Structures are given as structure tokens and as C-alpha cells.
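Running low. Got one?
___
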Amino acid sequence: MRKIKKGDNVVVIAGRDKGKRGDVARIVDDTHVVVNGINAMKKHAKPNPLKNQPGGIITKEMPIHVSNIAIWNPVTQKPDRIGFRTLDDGRKLRFYKSNGEQING
């Protein structure tokens, strides 16, 4: 089970976008995620008439390392760490380390 999942609200704790918040759009691999509105780069794209795609400069979110983000705790209004709990029926649940509250999802 991963500590950061798709749809989690996270905050950037290191790098150029430090302090910005966004939702995780997708998981790239074990160590990289794409966050909406974070780490946006400008890319030059050639036009592709077969895909009906115009050329020009496009803005694209690039992957960011999971060590540079932390999950946002809405109760404490601060970034937080994640722990795991195993229930009696064998399910694993994520929880916030600061207050012990369970994470939905």
C-alpha cells in the first residue's frame, strides 16, 4: 500500500513550488507523482494534423518526487506524515501521524 494515492491533497515541501497545494493526478512510478498545478513546464509541440493537434508552446505538469511532497491534514491545516494500521479483519488503513485520525480513501 502506498502512502500517497491518486486524489490525495498534498503540499510541496521542497523545491521551486514550495508551499503550493494540489491534488495528485496520477502515480508515475514508485517514487514519482504528477500533481495538478505543480511543477508545470512549458514544452514546444509540433503540430500533428492526424491527431488534429495544433503546434505551439503548451504547459504540462511534470512528475515530482514523493520526498518533496507531504499529505495535507485538513484538521490541523498543516502538512503531515502517514502511518499504517492493520485492522482485525486484515485491512490496512492510513492515518495521520500528528492526530491519529484515519485518512478516507
In short: Residues 9-79 form a domain with the SH3 type barrels. fold (CATH 2.30.30.30). The chain is about 0% helix and 45% strand.
